[in-house]
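Sequence in, structure out. Go.
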Amino acid sequence: MFPGFEKLIESRIKKAQDEGAFENLPGSGQPLHLEDDLDIPEDLRMAHKVLKNADCLPPEVQLRKEIRTTEDLLDGMTDTVQRYRTIKKINFLIMKLNALKDTNAAYDIPQRYYSELVERLGADKA
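Output:
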């Protein structure tokens, strides 16, 4: 910073405080909700924040978000045919997500139908 620049900033902040510019601001007295970006490399944090503020999500994040939303819809469904179609959609999205990742297949996200099938078979026995 330039010499004296910090003094200028401090004096303007002090003047604004004396004039009450910081009184009754929205969220005043509430805790700050800081984003946890420790898992993002330090040199990419600014770019990540800019993209996030512009609602530009990486494809993996967008797919995960769509999977979660579709699963939430599935939880409220009662029609068997509609549930089946929705499970197929979830499985397709999971397959796309697994194909995007460049990792070992052991780390793939399991598709939804397996647990649904086990649950259904268990309910039929009862």
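Check: Residues 80-100 form the longest helix (21 residues). Residues 75 and 83 are 9 Å apart (CA to CA).
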